């Protein structure tokens, strides 16, 4: 009784929580208006024709819709802002480029995406040709026997590096909350069990595939899977269900960030604030009445000030 | 470190996450780091709850229902600002922002890391607005809102100059300025407000400028500037004030009327406009470009920048030219037209001398002086003698707000390179979008936090020291009024023999004027020009 529950109910529930949670959070963000257009401009603004704007300026300080989309693209897929990272060295009072955080982050996120894609082979029957090809490439076919899928390894290494930062670097340790470690530990254990199944404790693949296809076609069948796989599945479901409640929502949040997703065309196209309050303050008339004498004196001089020489 | 003044020791501390959740209170407040509270007259003028309190008191005499007021206001702001809501949720604490903050670099105080500064508020958000925070409490990084927490918020929200340097490095674009701006608004709702900002805001709301100059004072100041121009050039310049029907309304920060080295910049404006025969006017009602309201709340920012459009409409000008100022331009570029829709009477901003249409200012009709002058130089409409600036070896400090709130990098450089012969850039990681704050922006330009300002300005001072040693740089050019007020102190503290001045001062020096009958022998400051006149 317990096995079908774990194999079928848990994945469905976790996925439902993930989907509903993410949509709910996104709608919740979208419900708050954006009163001001506040892009962080990291490049030369669009300006006079003889002022040169490089390709970087176009994406770091976008003026058109397409440039803004470009900025978001580089931000989401290549972590543009993180690539700019520097470190301050007190001994020399200097900055140096430090891209290791960017590198670890890129290493993990891209590898993880590739790992997720390769998981499609469990859900598709027959496995399409492109996926076979993709598996051969990511496994560097012929280099190792048995094949070693590189993304799985690099995702694991990337996560360990990100974890190591929080453990061993002072600043990072100070700002890390338990939830930061929890997210990392969850992902590390998901990947660790995955790697374990593939390379050390070989798990029979047939029941896994049967289960996976049953789940995606909504004809779930409980199969007799290896306990290690069950652990892998449960951990993955936990991560999935935890996602909308945690900082993992950064994946969706970056799309909502007004400092990145708005063009720097403030003076050319006025942004409208939906709740803009009416002006409260003194008008010219009130000001005039307060300082009538002095203002009249300026008027008497013909609205001109001349140097006394 | 050996060359630092003795007083400044930077101690980096790395407490545990639990210690980070404990509020820093009045017992730990250090002189030179905390701000004085709002004055009664300013609070009354602006409708902020007032009572007599001091940051070093144990009891801050918060109003009886302060907690409810604070949380209701928090809810209201979350519903009004997507930025706040998103930034409360998506931080992953990667630490990319940590050593980007000049206050963190200069103080080593872990709570000055931008992420930690935001966490002071985020922890309250988690406790009162998220389920996870309510259930798991401290383990989810949540904490109760107590009077001590309010003290901490006041202490750290006024150790941020809203420079947005951290935002440039954040992978999600989390903008600490946005969080701190909202945070200060929250504190204002329970009367925990800041003296210096509100003195200026109240003055500007009443008289039209932060200094509280009355109309006669503005006119008198302009007259004195014109007299100084006469002393240097022998030209009598008539300065139009409140003139109806002029083509352009000129607005600059009010410091240009009084302070040094702003004064020389003001001379530069008058000389240039006279030389061009520009049909423009100053205004006493809109005599302030800067906007300290942008350090406190949306409503106050709106209150202060409204006057410019109202005055433009009353005078019937076609468009508005703005002077050298930092946060003024964040306000004018990003906020002003949204807060107060531009009047219909304004026309397209077209340079009357060159005919250039400023397309990037098509709707708000406000053009930056650097754009205007760059355009003039490109079209060779003014004659320049850059050798008059040969006694200066110039470097340019990008002001935070024109850099990261506007993207104005090349125009001032274009102008500077055309008006002086010796120009050197500071190290790459301290200029343009990575520029460092002077340490005194965002309402921090006040005496009581002098140590904080000197520490916060350290990275900029070190970068300047580098070019001073390497190229002999002796002139720091900046286009921000707060920079010009802050840097002289900072450079004195860090023992750098470098003068501070504005772009328009250099332009004024180099400008060859038609009506001038004899060769100038001094620059605008009265320094003898090398190789000319009596040595």
pLDDT < 50 stretches of chain A? none
Q: What is the count of β-strands of chain A?
A: 3
Task: Profile the largest sheet of chain A.
Answer: 2 strands, antiparallel
Give the termini distance of chain B in whole angstroms.
40 Å
Describe this structure in words.
The complex is a heterodimer of chains A (309) and B (535). Chain A has 309 residues and is mainly alpha-helical. Chain A has helices spanning 2-31, 55-60, 65-78, 80-83, 100-118, 120-123, 129-138, 150-168, 170-175, 178-200, 206-216, 227-242, 250-253, 284-290, 292-300; strands at residues 86-89, 94-97, 304-305. Chain A has 15 helices and three strands. In chain A, strand 1 (86-89) and strand 2 (94-97) form a beta hairpin. The longest helix of chain A is centred in the first third of the chain and has 30 residues, at 2-31. Chain A is elongated and about 100 Å long. With 535 residues, chain B is mainly alpha-helical. Chain B starts with 16 loop residues before the first helix and ends in a 25-residue tail after the last helix. In chain B, the strands form two sheets. A four-stranded parallel beta sheet of chain B has the order 3-2-4-5. Chain B is globular and about 80 Å long. Chain A: It is found in: Cell membrane. Chain A: InterPro entries: DsrM (IPR047660), Heme-iron_electron_transfer (IPR051936), NarG-like_domain (IPR023234), NarG-like_sf (IPR036197). Chain A: Keywords: Cell membrane, Electron transport, Membrane, Oxidoreductase, Transmembrane, Transmembrane helix, Transport. Chain A: It comes from Archaeoglobus veneficus (strain DSM 11195 / SNP6).
């Amino acid at each position: 009784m317990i096995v079908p529950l774990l194999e079928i109910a848990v994945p469905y529930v976790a996925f439902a929580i993930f989907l509903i949670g993410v949509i709910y959070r996104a709608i919740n963000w979208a419900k708050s208006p954006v009163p001001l257009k506040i892009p962080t401009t990291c490049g030369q603004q669009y300006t006079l024709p003889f002022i040169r704007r490089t390709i970087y300026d176009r994406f770091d300080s976008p003026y058109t819709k397409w440039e803004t989309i470009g900025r978001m693209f580089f931000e989401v897929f290549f972590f543009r802002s993180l690539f700019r990272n520097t470190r301050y060295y007190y001994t020399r009072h200097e900055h140096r480029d430090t891209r290791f955080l960017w590198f670890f982050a890129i290493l993990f996120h891209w590898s993880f995406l590739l790992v997720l894609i390769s998981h499609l082979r469990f859900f598709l029957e027959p496995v399409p040709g492109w996926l076979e090809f993709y598996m051969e490439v990511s496994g560097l076919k012929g280099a190792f026997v048995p094949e070693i899928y590189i993304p799985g390894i690099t995702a694991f290494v990337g996560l360990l590096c990100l974890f190591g930062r929080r453990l061993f670097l002072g600043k990072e340790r100070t700002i890390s909350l338990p939830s930061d470690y929890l997210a990392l530990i969850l992902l590390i254990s998901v990947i660790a069990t995955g790697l374990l199944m593939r390379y050390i404790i070989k798990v029979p693949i047939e029941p896994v595939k049967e289960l996976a296809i049953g789940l995606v076609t909504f004809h779930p069948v409980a199969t007799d899977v290896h306990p290690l796989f069950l652990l892998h599945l449960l951990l993955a479901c936990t991560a999935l269900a935890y996602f909308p409640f945690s900082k993992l929502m950064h994946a969706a949040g970056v799309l909502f960030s007004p400092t990145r997703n708005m063009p720097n065309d403030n003076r050319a196209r006025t942004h409208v604030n939906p709740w803009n309050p009416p002006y409260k303050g003194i008008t010219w008339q009130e000001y005039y009445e307060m300082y009538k004498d002095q203002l009249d004196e300026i008027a008497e001089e013909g609205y001109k000030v001349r140097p006394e020489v | 470190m050996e060359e630092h003044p003795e007083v400044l020791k930077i101690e980096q501390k790395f407490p545990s996450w639990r210690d980070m959740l404990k509020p820093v209170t009045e017992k730990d407040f250090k002189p030179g780091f905390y701000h004085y509270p709002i004055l009664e007259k300013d609070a009354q003028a602006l409708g902020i709850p007032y009572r007599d309190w001091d940051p070093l008191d144990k009891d801050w005499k918060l109003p009886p229902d302060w907690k409810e007021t604070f949380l209701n206001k928090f809810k209201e702001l979350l519903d009004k600002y997507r930025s706040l809501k998103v930034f409360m949720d998506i931080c992953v604490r990667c630490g990319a922002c940590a050593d980007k903050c000049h206050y963190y670099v200069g103080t080593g105080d872990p709570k000055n890391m931008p992420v930690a500064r935001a966490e002071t508020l985020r922890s309250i958000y988690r406790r009162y607005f998220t389920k996870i925070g309510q259930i798991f409490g401290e383990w989810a990084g949540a904490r109760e809102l107590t009077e001590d927490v309010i003290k901490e918020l006041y202490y750290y929200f006024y150790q941020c100059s809203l420079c947005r340097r951290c935002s440039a490095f954040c992978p999600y674009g989390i903008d600490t300025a946005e969080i701190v701006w909202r945070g200060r608004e929250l504190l204002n709702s329970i009367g925990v407000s800041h003296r210096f900002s509100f003195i200026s805001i109240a003055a500007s709301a009443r008289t039209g400028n932060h200094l509280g100059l009355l109309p006669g004072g503005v006119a008198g100041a302009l007259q004195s500037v014109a007299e100084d121009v006469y002393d240097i050039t022998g030209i009598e310049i008539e300065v139009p004030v409140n003139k109806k029907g002029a083509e352009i309304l000129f607005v600059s920060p009010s410091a240009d009327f009084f302070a040094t080295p702003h004064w020389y910049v003001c001379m530069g404006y008058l000389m240039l406009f006279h030389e061009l025969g520009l049909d423009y006017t100053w205004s006493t009602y809109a005599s302030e470009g800067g906007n300290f309201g942008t350090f406190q709340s949306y409503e106050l920012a709106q209150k202060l920048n409204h006057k410019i459009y109202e005055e433009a409409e009353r005078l019937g000008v076609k468009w508005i030219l703005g002077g050298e100022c930092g946060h003024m331009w964040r306000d004018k570029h990003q906020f002003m037209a949204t807060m107060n829709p531009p009047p219909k009477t304004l026309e397209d901003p077209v340079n009357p001398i060159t005919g250039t249409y400023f397309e990037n200012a098509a709707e708000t009709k406000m053009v930056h002086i650097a754009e205007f002058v760059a355009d003039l130089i490109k079209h060779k409409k003014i004659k320049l003698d850059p050798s008059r600036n040969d006694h200066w070896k110039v470097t340019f400090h990008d002001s935070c707000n024109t850099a990261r709130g506007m993207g104005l990098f090349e125009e001032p450089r274009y102008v500077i390179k055309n008006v002086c012969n010796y120009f050197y850039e500071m190290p790459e990681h301290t200029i343009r979008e990575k520029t460092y704050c002077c340490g005194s922006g965002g309402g921090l330009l006040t005496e009581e936090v002098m140590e904080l300002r000197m520490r916060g300005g350290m990275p900029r001072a070190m970068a300047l020291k580098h070019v001073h040693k390497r190229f002999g740089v002796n002139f720091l050019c900046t286009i921000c009024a707060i920079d010009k007020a802050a840097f002289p102190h900072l450079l004195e503290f860090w023992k750098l023999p470098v003068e501070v001045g504005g772009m328009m001062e250099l332009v004024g020096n180099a400008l060859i004027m038609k009506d001038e009958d004899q060769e100038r022998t001094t620059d605008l400051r009265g320094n003898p020009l090398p190789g000319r006149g009596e040595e």
